[in-house]
Amino acid sequence: ILTQLDLLQQQIPVPQWYSVLPAPIRVVLWVIGLPTLIIGLNVFRQVALPRNKNLPPVVFHYIPWFGSAAYYGEDPYKFFFECREKYGDLFTFILMGRRVTVALGPKGNNLSLGGKTSQVSAEDAYTHLTTPVFGKGVVYDCPNEMLMQQKKFIKSGLTTEALQSYPPLIRDECQEYFANTLGINPSRPSSKKVDLLHAMAELIILTASRTLQGKEVRESLNGSFAKLFEDLDGGFTPLNFMFPNLPLPSYKRRDVAQKAMSDFYMKIIENRRKGETDHEHDMIASLQGCKYRNGVPLTDRDISHIMIALLMAGQHTSSATSSWALLHLADSPELYESLYQEQRTKFGNPDGTFRDLTYEDIKECKLLDATIRETLRMHAPIHSIYRKVMSDIPVPPSLSAPSEQASYVIPKGHYIMAAPGVSQMDPLIWQDSKVFTPTRWLDEAGVAAAAVEQYSKSEQVDYGFGAVSKGTESPYQPFGAGRHRCVGEQFAYTQLSTIITYIVRNYTMKLEVPEFPKTNYRTMIVQPMNPLVSFTLRKQEV
Ligand code: HEM
User: Fold this and answer.
1) 157-204 pLDDT, tens per residue?
2) Is residue 478 within 6 Å of ligand 1 at its C-beta?
3) Residue 406 — pLDDT band, cuts 50, 70, 90?
4) pLDDT tens-digit profile of 272-297?
5) What is the pTM of this model?
6) What is the DSSP letter of 408?
7) How far apart are the CA of 288 and the centre of ligand 1, in A?
8) Which of 323, 343, 460, 519 could anchor a disulfide with 467, C-beta 3.0 to 4.6 Å?
9) Going by CA atoms, what residue is nearest to atom 33 of ligand 1?
């Protein structure tokens, strides 16, 4: 260090007093002085120098490059709401070298989720995270127009007929899991304390593989597949999002697992092509034979990578949602009882049992539907949706701060971020926005009903995967909006509804922690912390 300092000293003129200081003091001066100088200059630049009035205001930060990473990462919603107070619906923050412009509220959501492909790109924002996990050639590792067609192929695999076949399969998996894996059955102690998130993660992958992913994946879940999934999942973290390539073991394990999992799906496809017919009409079967508009068929590799993408897309989103929903139910015995009564009234048999739930029945369960909607309102699994800005975006005057003379421009090279969770929790839009109130969704005249109306029945647009309601200006967007809107929504609702119904029919629940679990924002998907609950078997198992 001293040699380096001496070299530096020869190049930078230093005062006489510095040269006579003892070496250790000189080191301490540099170690403390240099960062102080950098921080000081950064603060001075922000508070004393005039800023470009055409650019959105930048969130005040001390450390250049690192910016507001800690403030945002610790609790994104606290960050968004506090910044909105200070800067309005549009502001830029520094996130480890990236300049991220947050556009809040329905107008902000529209700006980023409804943006043109010439202006915003999801591929450029996400490919470094997703391609090493999903594999090449699909989703964000191909032109947007191909992704739109892939989404169309996925949708064509989720027909009403396919969805109708899922509830009985999901129910069987639930029965097996609760009775045998968790061991809550009449012959054993009929009550058990469990980590809900862990249990739901297991149940979601079991049920998704039994239905969408197919028999072969389900059969391998107890063996090699589970380990591959774990390693691949370890490559889908905020660290991977920030730093695509680090020389860490988890990155290596991710790459090995990606190759192995891709080969695993390839083998399934090959076997089926050779005449293996013992499988349901699952997604693999549906994707085989799909062709792009130009006549080029999906390759086996493409199918394998789409299957991995679907596995990853549905896993944490649905396990977090089911966990949050069940936590609220455990926290509210009255709501739990009302859901039980909904089941009894609609599907109860005189002998105390229930008839099996069908896909059509799910639509009849209004309170259940409202419970899932409300869960997604308060706990949208994805708190930040990023796009890379590909060409300057002029901001409509309604989003620029009223005090500013000029309208803002979000420059090429920035990221633009939507945070639909902010409008979903906005006290100006939702009455008692912080209170879990499923019944708000049953009130036709309520503000929530108007929001969902805007989301699901607004202008219909076909981005290339069938007509969907545009919904980019809705204050309720748990499944996103615009061209990147989720295509797994119906599957997720079927899966979540069937699992929750099974639990409500057969068990009572109790929170086993002193207060309602807080939120962990350090994972890609918003999850509950320490979600301990107990399940107790109702008198009669059904
Ligand atoms: C896209 C949420 C379940 C497949 C999205 C987006 C959101 C979302 C917010 C938009 C992302 C963006 O704009 O960048 C959810 C939630 C789920 C869920 C809350 C469950 C509660 C699923 C499931 C699947 C799935 C089960 C697969 C079966 C997809 C796909 C996309 C997507 C393929 C399109 C990505 C794109 O076009 O860029 N999801 N999702 N999702 N989701 Fe889901």
Assistant:
1) 999 999 999 999 999 999 999 999 999 988 877 899 999 999 999 999
2) yes
3) low
4) 999 877 777 799 999 999 999 999 99
5) 0.94
6) P
7) 22
8) 460
9) 487
CB 67 within 8 A of CB 94: yes
Bridge partners (DSSP) of residue 193 are: 534
Q: Whose CA is nearest to atom 26 of ligand 1?
A: 314
- Whether 310 is in the pocket of ligand 1, judged by its Cβ within 6 Å, is yes
- Check pocket membership of 385 for ligand 1, CB cut-off 6 A: yes
Pick the atom of ligand 1 nearest to 477's CA. 9
CB within 8 A of 328, min separation 6: which ones? 335, 371, 374, 375, 436
Give 51's DSSP letter. Answer: P
pLDDT, tens digit, 9 for 90 and up, residues 491-526: 999 999 999 999 999 999 999 999 999 999 999 999
483 HSE (CA, 13 A, CB side): 22
Q: How far is the CA of 154 from the centre of ligand 1 (A)?
A: 12
Instruction: Decide if 41 contacts 69 (C-beta within 8 A).
Output: no
Q: From the alpha carbon of 496, which atom of ligand 1 is closest?
A: 21
H or E element, residue 90? strand 90-95
What tokens were used for 212? 């969408």
Distant-in-sequence, close-in-space partners of 70: CB < 8 Å, separation ≥ 6 = none
Query: Hey, what are 184's tokens?
Result: 């809550």
Is the beta carbon of 479 within 6 A of some atom in ligand 1?
A: yes
Per-residue DSSP letter, 60? P
Q: Give the count of beta carbons closer than 10 Å to the beta carbon of residue 321.
A: 26
Q: Whose CA is nearest to atom 35 of ligand 1?
A: 484
pLDDT (0 to 100) of residue 481: 95
Residue type, 286: S
Residue nearest to atom 21 of ligand 1 (CA): 318
Residues in CB range of 203: below 8 A, 6 or more apart: 173, 174, 177, 319, 322, 499
Running DSSP on this structure, what letter comes out for residue 517? -
For residue 418, which atom of ligand 1 is closest to its CA?
A: 13
